[in-house]
Design brief:
By secondary structure, this protein is an alpha/beta fold. Helices cover about 55% and strands about 10% of the residues. The protein contains 20 helices and ten strands. It has helices at about 15-25, 25-35, 55-65, 65-75, 95-110, 140-150, 170-180, 195-210, 210-220, 235-250, 275-280, 290-305, 310-320, 325-345, 350-380, 385-390, 395-410, 415-420, 425-440, 460-470, and strands at about 40, 45-50, 80-85, 160, 190-195, 225-230, 255-260, 285, 445-450, 455-460. The strands form three sheets. It has a five-stranded parallel β-sheet, sandwiched between helices. Helix 2 (about 25-35) crosses helix 5, helix 6 (about 140-150) runs parallel beside helix 7 and helix 12 crosses helix 13. It is globular, with a radius of gyration of 22 Å. Mean pLDDT is about 80; it is low at about 1-10 and about 110-120.
Length: about 475
């Protein structure tokens, strides 16, 4: 076994890792995402990051995992596995200015995208054959397989939607890997997999550097365009227009388009009707959170990958308590593995209960809150960062109040817990819930908010019913 030799032998490894991350990403991003709302611990094989809420955890995972891994290796001289989980107790450390900075960075789409490169087929992580199917995702998987295995799928575009962590990215990357492998007509498949955020930044850079035609040639001549997180296009009028032309060009050439988002196209706020119409012209399929049987099979596969000898009763126990994302299932197994190694004990049901009791309670509530924020923000065309910020525009205030109301109704979180998780005080949550309850009590009350096409109005009861149906 290779000995671990720290590059910073006289420095606390956690402080050293934070210092390296700070140097790599800059002061603005470090202060926004790491300064108060995270807790990092450096262990034998892992670099563990706790985040104040699901939104911050997801953003760090998407944008800074490589920086954290590089920092861990630089500090310890050894490769560390980066694991990110939610710790709501950190919420109290967040400051309003920090929450507003997060919202601004998300709006500008600058957090980490400049360093991300377009992945090639060999670099994409996920494969279709590794996807665990069940009643919640079987239709989406079948559609993905049909696209990957046919030179001309029976539907175009394919639009997959569902809350965070249920397998959308897995299917999109799996389509790319399988399509490139199955494409054997003598011509190399021209494809791109990227997020809508990356598309936006590429487009902005092409305008800034007067390379719009180069940008268009790179995208409009593709055989397969796969776009993740389409909801990021919300409220970006110029980018939506460019994407519409890109979509039309590829579609008219009888080439394939695949997209994924947190919500159904009709529920994506602040998208043009033209784009929504195009998205609905193919097949729209939803992925729900995995049912218990699927969770058990996912855990079995994860345990095999982690080389963890976990008895079936332990996997059954975890599957019973973790109802959220695949990432949470994996995080739970990673923690259990670490505890068993530290204590020098086999993995048993008693160990799982003792080691994971607090984690399971926090995860269940936090993930439900995260799912609610995802649905609400996608519907109104804002981001979870806006909900956490101090912004008070009518649209953001309405979205925030509805998120608080749904969290109170569909979780066991108290008013103070909701406020802590959202960076607000107890009284703000009480008033928000009362506001929504008053709207629902008035038979003809209509909610009004802004979209790029102007104000939109919907009866309060219909609005709440629509978003409740989208909850994971």
């Amino acid at each position: 076994m290779t000995a671990e030799v720290s590059v910073y032998p006289r420095t606390d490894p956690t402080e050293a890792v934070l210092a390296v991350v700070h140097q790599r990403i800059g002061t603005q991003k470090f202060n926004a995402w790491f300064k108060n709302g995270t807790c990092i611990s450096v262990e034998k094989n892992d670099l563990k990051v706790g985040a104040a809420n699901p939104f911050i955890a997801g953003w760090i995972e998407s944008h800074f995992t490589d920086d954290l891994a590089a920092a861990g290796r630089e500090v310890t001289g050894r490769r560390k596995r980066v694991t990110i989980s939610v710790d709501p107790t950190l919420s109290g450390r967040l400051r309003k200015r920090q929450l507003d900075l997060q919202a601004n960075l998300v709006d500008r789409g600058t957090a980490g995208t400049a360093r991300r490169q377009q992945p090639t087929a060999s670099r994409l992580r996920y494969k279709l054959e590794d996807f665990v199917t069940g009643s919640s995702n079987k239709l989406a998987y079948s559609a993905a397989r049909a696209v990957a295995e046919s030179s001309k799928a029976p539907f175009n575009p394919l639009f997959i939607h569902g809350t965070c962590g249920v397998g959308k990215t897995h299917l999109l990357q799996g389509i790319c890997n399988a399509s490139a492998k199955n494409h054997n007509n003598g011509k190399k498949l021209a494809w791109k997999y990227l997020t809508a955020e990356r598309f936006t930044n590429d487009f902005v850079q092409s305008i800034r550097h007067k390379r719009v035609e180069t940008f268009r040639r790179a995208y409009r001549r593709l055989d397969l365009l796969v776009i993740d997180d389409v909801h990021f296009l919300a409220a970006k009028k110029a980018t939506q227009e460019e994407f519409l032309h890109t979509f039309n060009t590829i579609h008219d050439a009888d080439k394939q388009i695949v997209m994924a988002s947190d919500a159904h196209p009709r529920l994506l706020g602040r998208l043009t009707e033209q784009l929504v119409s195009r998205f609905l012209s193919g097949m729209v399929v939803r992925i729900d959170s995995p049912d218990r049987d699927t969770r058990i099979r996912i855990l079995q596969r994860l345990a095999a990958r982690l080389k963890l000898a976990a008895p079936q009763d332990v996997l059954d126990y975890i599957a019973l308590h973790i109802h959220g994302s695949v990432r949470e299932l994996e995080g739970t197994l990673v923690k259990l593995t670490a505890m068993a190694k530290l204590l020098g004990e086999p993995v048993t049901l008693d160990l799982a209960r003792d080691a994971l009791a607090d984690h399971l309670v926090r995860t269940d509530s936090a993930i439900t809150l995260g799912g609610i924020e995802t649905v609400v923000s996608a519907f109104f065309g804002i981001t979870p960062a806006d909900i956490h910020s101090s912004r008070r525009t009518h649209t953001v205030s309405l979205a925030r109040a509805i998120a608080m109301f749904l969290t109170r109704r569909h979780t066991r979180m108290s008013f103070p817990e909701i406020g802590q998780s959202m960076g607000k005080n107890h009284s703000s949550v009480v008033l928000a819930v009362q506001r929504v309850e008053k709207m629902l009590a008035e038979d003809h009350h209509c909610c009004r908010w802004m979209t790029p096409a102007g104000p939109k109005t919907l009866p309060a009861k219909e609005l709440l019913k629509t978003m409740t149906e989208q909850l994971p």
